[in-house]
Specification:
The complex is a heterotrimer. By secondary structure, chain A is α/β, with parallel strands linked by helices. Chain A contains eleven helices and ten strands. In chain A, strand 1, helix 2 and strand 2 form a beta-alpha-beta unit. Chain C is globular, with a radius of gyration of 22 Å. By secondary structure, chain C is mainly α. Chain C has one domain. Chain C is built from 20 helices and two strands. The chains are: A alpha/beta, B mainly alpha, C mainly alpha. Chains in contact: A-B, A-C, B-C. At the B-C interface, helix 1, helix 2, helix 3, helix 4 and helix 5 of B face helix 7, strand 2, helix 8, helix 16 and helix 17 of C.
């Protein structure tokens, strides 16, 4: 199947080269149509935001010489959009945003797709995970919180969203286990609308804690309404420098919630080179750096080779930790 | 005329009981996971199945006690032309979806609108073709070119200049 | 008080600049057009605008996006009235009386009513946003899963007892809607339910697919009966595009009642326009002296949900402005766009960037006036469309319906679903099963189940949580009252 596509695309490329004599050698592939970045979720989420940030950087810095569109294809925790990308094999004009869910969907058995089905173009940014409680809650850090958890788990309701089996969920299970409480006894209250429901539920006292990305809580932290018990980064984060990392609190747990972009499978070497070069250029632009700063995202750039190795490692780690907390056998 | 012994409500009742039963049976096979949520994925469907089956039983019972039943007919014979149009429209809609990516939006839409126009606006081929082409082209220009939404180009992909 | 007016003046000075006025106009027009099309809602409209907002200052960007947002609210019901095809979920109720009005030759009045009611709802919603944001936002925090479940139960019961025909068939329709809502992956446990092995069903059935099938395409099927009979008679007269004094008087109180209701419901995350419109319709019908007119072109049955819907979209901005969290899909897109511009709405927005916060609020005033000015003249060419004979109009409605379906998920499978639901809608109408409870249950089904399960998780399994919490208890009582009222009314009707 794949070889057929490669042959076809090679054929197409040669036809195009024939069409535009003198443009250049085949080594200089350039997109000839509008670029489409697939956000495999509805407008407004993390993938959508990443896709639009890349769109902004590529257009404003004039890196691709073609218009860039963002297409939202929600469904299946990303699988719908990614399947669409897979169908564009050999076509260099299609990218998609991705995240650890591409590993988790496969590990938890909800999708057959893996990162190996695509050209993993670049890892771009990361957020960090936190556990947040109301500002007037008695707990100051992981230790006293999870001690309470151990004592009476029926009183502790933990908000998570949009579905179980994501990074937020895994963070909390891992911490529970590390602090010696029982992961199976945790009462998770699931909020499909994520922060939009989790934060009011926390502030209203309906649940005792939420496990969530740091950036989602930042405004509440600034307003003094919410306290963070710990953060999953390796070192303290400037915006929340009072919050100790889990590592400082004695739990060996550094957990990035990264997002990156991938391209369709079966790209020619020229197409791959074009995109790798473009990403290299993009992450160095002012537009990109400013966008990261505005969105409270941390740069986490890994070009293709590093990214693929990173994913292979993450895949193994993720399997182990999911097994440990009992989500898979 | 066997049809005539049934009334609207007996048919509705019987259909809902059947549907409720199938749904209930299917609900008992939902896998229950240990992680997280305590209520589980089956509880709500059980309630729903019970509701639908009860409504069905109620309707049957009510019609059983009804002394003056109104016979009901689907009208497959009387309104045959209507049913044929409905089935053909549905089939056209399904085919439209199937060929959309392959033929591309422009061609598939022309074919679909042309076909349903032929069903409705019988015999005026030229008018129908004109409507189909105008509809397809204007929507493609508005959505794909002006609003920049993604529409499949299909087999015209290599020819279209944009 | 002085503060408020001072700030509002500041806001007005921001929003009334020539550039901003121009963008409000462009955004409003774009929103109106996008809102009219089934399958394209305000979220898509705002997303389309994002690339254009890159170069803007944050206040202009937010003002433009808001204009698209309420433009879509204005536009959403155009198609409901004209061709019985709601542009989005919150425009469903506008079909109930808007379409009968158009069919009986009052399309112009219906469009004018909808624009004027939207305007009034928007203005009242804005006033609430200015004066009541803080207390309402605080009260909304009291809403936990138990309260949410009871509210949705009340909205459903009220819809059932007030829809036409037998109450038992209403409950049946609700059950069918819930059945459809449970298809797909269960978010709480990850279990796959009722997909019959079809992968396309794993994400559940998009309610817009069902809506396009049950409303637009079914309506075409119903017209097939009359196709050969009516060819040249133009039975749809148009009427003038305005409301008479008497009509305005008739709708004034319903609009004034529905707007606060819409605003408050809009503040609740996720609940939004659907509940607001259905509830306001139920309220008006139940207190009307002639409830039998509803569903047959009662003007207050159109005005009330329209006002509620626009007030609701103001309410949806409350969590965005006060907590920095989006209450709906559209506000989520707006939040993303703002963050890319370096502004994070939230509790500190009013202190740090008063010109943005108040500029937006003031732009609603400007925007609503502008949209009224756009929509009233726009109604004139729109009603002309009714002159197109059905034999040409029906294929175009089919084309629009299926095309709208494609934009939802870009999935060919949805075309099959639309076809099947159209048939189901036709059968339901033959068997006199009401459609509204099904659609409402489908839209609210996921949330209802989620609220039910979350409440029971929090209460460790005891049902007491539903009646021990006062707000929840109040909604349960309201649900019981509306059921009793419906049964009584029904008995009266059958005895006559």
């Amino acid at each position: 199947m794949n070889t057929k596509w490669i042959l076809l695309s090679g054929l197409a490329a040669s036809v195009m080269a024939f069409d535009y004599p003198g443009t250049a050698l085949a080594a200089d592939w350039k997109p000839t149509r509008p670029i489409e970045i697939v956000a495999p979720a509805g407008p407004g989420g993390g993938w959508d935001l990443l896709a639009r940030t890349v769109q902004q950087a590529l257009t404003q810095e004039k890196l691709v010489g073609q218009p860039v569109l963002v297409t939202n294809k929600p469904g299946g925790g990303g699988s719908a959009g990614w399947t669409y990308l897979k169908g564009k094999a050999g076509q260099g004009e299609f990218l998609a945003a991705n995240s650890p869910l591409i590993l988790q969907n496969n590990i938890l058995g909800s999708s057959q797709l893996t990162y190996k089905d695509f050209f993993m173009l670049a890892n771009l940014m990361t957020e960090w995970e936190v556990v947040a409680v109301k500002a007037d809650a008695p707990w100051k850090g992981g230790k006293d919180f999870f001690a309470e958890m151990k004592k009476d788990p029926t009183k502790m309701n933990i908000g998570v969203g949009p579905a179980l089996g994501n990074d937020d969920h895994i963070q909390f299970l891992t911490l529970t286990k590390a602090y010696g409480a029982d992961p199976k006894a945790v009462k998770f209250v699931v909020y499909p609308n994520t922060a939009a429901e989790q934060i009011p539920a926390l502030l209203g006292g309906h649940i005792q804690a939420i496990t969530i990305s740091m950036a989602e809580t930042l405004e509440q932290v600034k307003a003094g309404k919410v306290r963070l018990l710990g953060v999953s980064s390796a070192e303290r984060i400037p915006e929340i420098k009072d919050v100790a990392t889990w590592k400082e609190q004695g739990v060996d747990f550094v957990f990035p919630h990264w997002r990156g972009v991938m391209a369709a499978p079966g790209l020619s070497a020229e197409q791959q080179k074009f995109w790798s070069d473009t990403m290299d250029k993009m992450v160095k632009t002012e537009t990109w750096k400013k966008a990261l700063k505005n969105l409270n995202w941390e740069a986490f750039y890994q070009p293709t080779k590093e990214y693929t190795e990173f994913l292979a490692k993450q895949d193994i780690l993720m399997r182990e930790s999911l097994k440990e907390v009992g989500l898979i056998k | 005329m066997a049809e005539n012994r049934f009334t609207k409500d007996t048919i509705t009742g019987a259909l809902s009981i059947a549907l409720g039963a199938v749904y209930l049976a299917s609900a008992t096979t939902i896998p229950v996971t240990t992680a997280g949520d305590r209520v589980g994925p089956r509880a709500f469907p059980y309630l729903v199945a019970a509701l639908v089956i009860c409504c069905g039983l109620w309707l049957l019972l009510k019609e059983f006690l009804n002394k003056n039943p109104q016979p009901f007919s689907w009208g497959f014979r009387r309104d045959r032309a209507v049913w044929i149009r409905i089935i053909l429209t549905m089939a056209a809609g399904i085919c439209y979806g199937l060929v959309l990516d392959w033929l591309g939006y422009l061609i598939a839409t022309i074919l679909f609108v042309m076909f349903v126009s032929e069903l409705i606006n019988v015999g005026r081929h030229r008018q129908n073709l004109l409507i189909a082409v105008i509809f397809s082209a204007t929507t493609f220009i508005a959505f794909a070119l002006v609003l920049k939404l993604s529409l499949p180009r299909g087999i015209l992909g290599a020819v279209l200049p944009f | 008080m002085d503060d408020v007016f001072h700030n509002l003046l500041l806001g007005l000075s921001v929003s009334a600049s020539a550039t901003n006025l121009m963008w409000v106009f462009i955004g409003g027009l774009l929103g109106t057009i996008i809102g009219m099309l089934p399958g394209l809602g305000p979220a898509t409209g705002v997303a389309i605008l994002i690339p254009i907002t890159y170069g803007m200052n944050p206040a202009t960007a937010l003002i433009t996006m808001c204009a698209v947002y309420y433009g879509a609210m204005f536009g959403g019901s155009r198609a409901s009235i004209m061709i019985n095809t709601p542009g989005d979920a919150s425009a469903i109720v506008s079909c109930f009386d808007g379409y009968p009005m158009a069919k009986s030759g009052r399309a112009g009045t219906a469009l004018a009513t909808s624009a004027i009611a939207s305007f009034i709802g928007g203005i009242i919603g804005m006033a609430f946003l200015i004066f009541l944001t803080e207390p309402v936002a605080a009260a909304a925090l009291e809403f936990g899963p138990a309260e949410k479940f009871s509210l949705m139960l009340f909205a459903l019961t009220a819809t059932i007892t007030l829809s036409e025909g037998s109450i038992i068939k209403g409950f049946l329709a609700m059950g069918l809607g819930f059945m459809l809502a449970t298809i797909g992956i269960d978010g709480q446990s990850g279990a796959i339910r009722f997909t019959m092995g079809i992968i396309d069903l794993q994400d559940g059935i998009d309610f817009l697919v069902v809506m396009i099938g049950l409303y637009a395409v079914t309506e075409v099927f119903k017209n097939y009966k009359a196709i050969n009979v009516v060819f040249d008679v133009d039975h749809r007269m148009i009427g003038r595009v305005w409301m008479s004094g008497a009509e305005f008087k008739q709708t004034l109180l319903p609009m004034l009642r529905s707007s606060p209701l819409g605003f408050v419901v809009g503040v609740l995350p996720g609940a939004g326009g659907t509940i607001a419109t259905f509830l306001s319709y139920a309220v008006e019908k139940s207190i009307s002296k002639k409830p039998e007119r509803f569903g047959k072109g009662a003007i207050e049955g159109l005005a009330a949900p329209e006002a509620a819907n626009n007030a609701c979209s103001c309410g949806a901005l409350v969590p965005l402005l006060t907590l920095g969290i989006p209450g709906s899909g559209t506000t989520a897109v707006m939040l993303g766009a703002l963050m890319m511009l370096g502004v994070r709405p939230g509790p500190v927005l009013f202190q740090q960037h008063p010109e943005i916060a108040w500029g937006v609020i003031a732009s609603m005033l400007v925007g609503n006036v502008m949209l009224l000015l756009i929509n009233l003249p726009l109604a004139v060419p729109l009603v002309r469309l009714l002159k197109i004979p059905p034999r040409i109009m029906l294929p175009l409605i089919l084309g629009m319906g299926y095309m709208g379906t494609y934009f939802l998920n870009y999935s060919a499978f949805d075309f099959t679903l639309v076809s099947l639901f159209a048939l189901a809608g036709y059968i339901m109408s033959m068997l006199s099963i009401p459609v509204p409870p099904l659609v409402l249950a489908l839209i609210l089904g996921g949330m209802t189940e989620q609220a039910y399960r979350n409440a029971l998780t929090i209460s460790n399994g005891t049902l007491a949580i539903f009646y021990e919490k006062p707000i929840s208890l109040a909604f349960l009582i309201l649900a019981a009252v509306s059921l009793a009222y419906g049964l009584l009314r029904h008995r009266k009707l059958t005895q006559k």
